[in-house]
Design goal:
0% helix, Beta-galactosidase, Chain A, domain 5, nine-stranded antiparallel β-sheet, eight-stranded antiparallel β-sheet, mainly beta, 306 residues
């Protein structure tokens, strides 16, 4: 296992490489964002699995990210403001983590990269409580694991957070990828104009290719995993031979989205967007709670395959 740093323009990048397994991660300290997940092919070349894999210059058009970290809320708050315990929060899409320079945390393990955000890194209008977050990316054999560890430093108050990861898995074209879902009971939460209407649809699915119209992915499919015993999902792009096996055990929600470009975002989520009829932040549907002085640990894993 090999770790090193690279300065690329105004970006400081951390690179974690397992030469034996042929797996490499590249993380930008801006947003603690994975900008590359790659495997070495039989010819010795690194093959990327993310949208715009390993690119840091902005694209001419289309979605500019790779795997956005979302929190302390995700998706949107209506009109970019809400009230939390009577205090105002203001912020844009997916909250503030994506725009912060994270602190790299030293680890006694050589197979992981850990990043930290503390209350000193955000303002009271971004989030008013004393809550910190450690985010860890780890290479385990040929699998990549992502873990969130929140710490509530408040001595008396329960804290509320929404969070997740927004990875876009690269495809040859918008038409070429497949997404297979396991059997189970799903609940779709409709979100016209990006906010929940309150309308839901329960889907008893037998398993297989996603039962949704590809052309409507720009509007998002927000899915609650109500009773899905086996939470193994598979993204594949047959023309390129790339496959990503996702293990979403313990993940309550999954959002599927694309802007019509050559990728699919399969987003593990711990929380939902605002309702059109906005609720107080602490009453948001799907909001996660952290007891005073307590911690919240969550995560998921995926395996990039050639």
């Amino acid at each position: 296992m090999f770790r090193n740093e690279e300065q690329r323009g105004d970006r400081l990048l951390d690179i974690l490489t397992d030469e034996a397994k042929g797996v490499r991660l590249i993380v930008s300290r801006l947003g603690a964002e994975l900008i590359s997940v790659a495997r070495r092919n039989a010819g010795g070349d690194w093959i990327g699995f993310l949208n715009r894999d390993n690119e840091t210059a902005p694209p001419e058009k289309g979605w500019a990210n790779h795997a956005t970290v979302m929190g302390y809320y995700l998706h949107r708050i209506k009109n970019e403001r809400t009230l939390y315990r009577g205090q105002e929060i203001r912020g844009g899409t997916h909250s503030f983590l994506r725009g912060k320079i994270w602190h790299r945390v030293e680890s006694n393990r050589d197979d992981e990269l850990t990043y930290r955000i503390t209350p000193e890194d955000f303002s009271a209008t971004e989030y008013p409580l004393q809550v910190s977050l450690d985010l860890t990316y780890r290479i385990e054999a040929e699998r990549v694991s992502v873990s969130f560890r929140f710490k509530n430093h408040e001595p008396e108050l329960t804290a509320h957070v929404g969070f997740g990861l927004h990875p876009g898995f690269a495809a040859t074209s918008f038409e070429s990828f497949r997404f297979e879902m396991p059997a189970g009971l799903y609940r779709r939460h409709f979100s016209p104009d990006n906010y929940l209407s309150g309308e839901t649809e329960d889907i008893q699915f037998a398993g297989g290719q996603m039962p949704f119209e590809r052309e409507k992915l720009p509007g998002s499919y927000i899915l609650e995993l109500v009773d899905v015993p086996d939470r193994g999902f598979t993204f594949s792009d047959p023309p390129s031979g790339r496959t990503v096996a996702l293990d979403l055990a313990g993940v309550p929600y999954l959002t599927l989205w694309s802007d019509g470009g050559p990728f699919l975002c399969a987003e593990p989520c711990w929380g939902l967007t605002d309702h059109h009829k906005q609720r107080a932040f602490e009453d948001k549907e799907g909001i996660q709670k952290i007891l005073a002085g307590g911690e919240l640990l969550a995560g998921f894993g995926f395996e990039p395959l050639l």
